[in-house]
Known about the structure:
The chain is mainly α and about 400 residues long. It has one domain (about 10-330, about 355-410). About 70% of the residues lie in helices and about 0% in strands. It has helices at about 10-30, 30-50, 60-90, 95-110, 115-135, 140-155, 165-170, 175-185, 190-215, 220, 225-230, 240-250, 250-280, 280-300, 305-320, 360-380, 400-410, and strands at about 320, 330. A two-stranded antiparallel ribbon has the order 1-2. Helix 6 (about 140-155) packs parallel to helix 15 (about 305-320).
Amino acid sequence: xxxxxxxxxxxxxxALVVALLAACVLVGRLPAAIRWLDPVLGGVATWLRGRGLFxxxxxxxxxxxxxxxxxxxxALVTYPSLGNVAxxxxxxxxxxxxxxxxxxxxxxxxLVGLASPLxxxxxxxxxxxxxxxxxxxxxxxxxxxxxxLTALTFAPAGxxxxxxxxxLARPDAVGRAWHALxxxxxxxxxxxxxxxxxxxxxxxxxxxxxxGLMHLMTETWVSGLAVAWILSDPVITPDAYxxxxxxxxxxxxxxxxxxxxxxxxILVFQLGLLPLTLLGRWPRRVGLILELGFVLGASLLLAxxxxxxxxxxxxGILFWSLRWLAGRAPGWSTDPDPRRxxxxxxxxxxxxxxxxxxxxxxLFRGLxxxxxxxxxxxxxxxxxxxxxxxxxxxxxxxxxxxxxxLADLARL
Length: 412
């Protein structure tokens, strides 16, 4: 979504987004903007809690939850970055080595929690605009990664289970410098946690909606033929195609019914993720089950690299709760309990103001405004199927193993 305003030139696109962010931060310092924007953000957070969404009973628990997810995301980003750096070094091209090294450095900083807000912001701005275009590693997974980084930057993550927590405890000049960094982004509060997670939800739902629109306007998708073809192709689904062929040979009707149900389930969660989440507990659970089914299927069956793991992190940021901090088992919470005990504050957590409201700094306001502008810029592209950023299906030559099966499916 960060490339919605750009024209494909990496550094020019990055400069445009940085200029937009700087302008939004300046707007966020204006008294008139503060008088208008702070009540709106606070009202959104209150409304979400009223819907049973993103309720934070204790800010310390929320900080630990976010930092556990930061570590998971950092590990997921660091792993492919190591391989990309190794490949770039073998190739010896400085134009590839530089961005892959930058990607690795920022990924490790995110993983260990070193200047976490800065690392997540720089990775958010550069991953889709500069790093992947220059290295030729673009994929849908990086779009979901950027959406995850949005929430971790806005909250922010980094005060717990990190090197930052150690540095913030120091009484010397280094500790004061780190406090200045975190004062710039501002403290984690209940309102900020709700707004950060809502931005992730809206961004993630927008990407799903754009992909769903493209699928809805493609006859092979609506008919179910696309899913039937994917499951039966040994190149795309090497671990599942034998079972797909076996099911079809046993009962063509059952195979068609299964692929049709999968197709409609994908379309329901892609087009309806946001309303399902906002409507209430049971619609939210239906959407979560459908999304988890797609994520697990994509992770286990399709060669979509890191898309599935990044999606799991997104769902974790949105719905996973650390109930074990209050003596309960961890779970996926679609209806958090606001009455949970505030006990369980963890040792080692850097001092963090825990106001229930506000905490909106100029930088936070600027980040939210910049996100809103880029989301609005993304809408026209989302509504034009030719330019949608979702997963496109351009089939290769049919594999001999499934050519006859597809011919039979087309007649059903």
